[in-house]
Amino acid sequence: MSQLMTLLAEDPIPTRYSLLSRLQNWDDQESWKDFFDTYWRLIYSVAIKSGLTETEAQDVVQETIISVAKDVNKFKRDRSLGSFKGWLRNLTRWRIADALRKRTRRDDHATSQEEFVPVENIPAPSDNEAIWEEEWQANLLEAAIDRVKHRVKEEHYQMFDLYVLKHWPVTRVAKTLGVNIGQVYLAKHRVASLIKKEIRALEERW
Amino acid sequence: MTVDKSNASAMTPRDPTGSGSSSSKTAAFPVVPDHELIRLIGSGSSGQVWLAKNALGTYRAIKVVYEKTFRHRRPFEREFNGILKFEPLSRLHDGLVDVLHVGRNDAAGYFYCIMELADDVNTAQAVNPDEYQPRTLAHDLTRRKQVPVPECVRLGATIASALHFLHERGLIHRDIKPSNIIFVNGAPKLADIGLVAQISEARSYVGTEGFIPPEGPGTAQADLYSLGKVLYEISTGKDRNDYPELPPDLGNTRHDRDLIQFSKIVVKACRANSNQRFKTADAMLAALLAFQFSVDDPIKERNRQRLINIIGIAGAVIGITVFTILIWRLVWLLKHGQ
Questions:
Q1: Nearest CB to B271; choose among A8, A154, A175
Q2: ipTM exceeding the 0.90 mark
């Protein structure tokens, strides 16, 4: 979670713009924007945990989403390809492998090694499954929070944020925001149930 | 307004690269009568901004907008007409950057506007052309993470008042963000008037992600939403995309209590539901001014503290006196056996 919070600080917008301009032949820009906003952090953080640099990870985000765009109709038709989660994991894994291959080729030719990552930083394949599962769950939660954040009353989100996400004691939240404890519990309940609903919707989308 | 076709009176621009005379480089310089263009200090989708010096030796900022950056002639003309309408108004409000002159060069396909220059980030009005960097609110945020609440309120009130002035005259800004708020003689002013448009004509999608309301840009209320996001960033030190989160290190200091109260104005400007936002700039201005009265300035705070001390001491003296009288009375009663 904390890692994802750090990632939130990264500015995804330039990547999204350049990606969307490459996807301009696709009919529905809005849904690709939404797709990007929902999944870029997942792909990005898995790429970083696989030992890629920030620039390489951004490329992996772009390439993976382009792969999704290219094959999504095939995926929707052919259920033998498995769950969306597994399919996206495979696409991400392949694009990470492409980036690593590209790096090997570059290292063979280049004299500069400034972006070189020691081989021991690249996780063993057995870790991949666990990393993906962990990031998938964290990403679902983050994506759901992002969606809910702009739909609930701002004051409710502020209470939820301080109490649940920032782990403040309920009395401190109430005192700081000048509300009573009951209002904090109510806000937590409202926001949390919307987030749960949103997670279910995200899981069932594919 | 000047329609400049001959450029006969134009001064020769300096080579910005400093590499001596290169005709190909100087040929790309726009030519502005009676001004020496010194250095490109900014460029964006809507044009270039040059540091320039007029014939009297005063430094100015000159914005040059090329027709070729537009797909069609119509939007270029629309921008030009917007500036023409804005030019005389700009000098009537302290919160707007002064536009001193507007002209165009049809042969070369551009128009320009000459504006007062923002303070330098280090030397304010003492401009060294080689090192000049305009002081914008965005630059201030790189130096200090958070702006104290009383300063946010003053800045917010100045910009809200400038927006009220524009909106009343049928103009909107469309791209309010920290890099478009500059300081002149230390006072905040709304800049990049290249984007100012007449409300009836503001159809094109401009603005900056995160400062645009969910329903889209191009309305007077969208300007207020953007100002709300600017105030959110400067008061909390957080990114606009974190809105409405409050800083996690909020304590029980006077500043933090003020920040929470101030955030209520920010929220009212940025609510997801536009019906619940400020309807007009003067409503937002009124809320900011009312808040300004409730925020203690340092002198008021010192007086308040003094008053608390005096009341405390007086209370202690009265308490001790009453206690002494009671003890004395008790002793007296015991002595006299009653």
A1: A154
A2: no
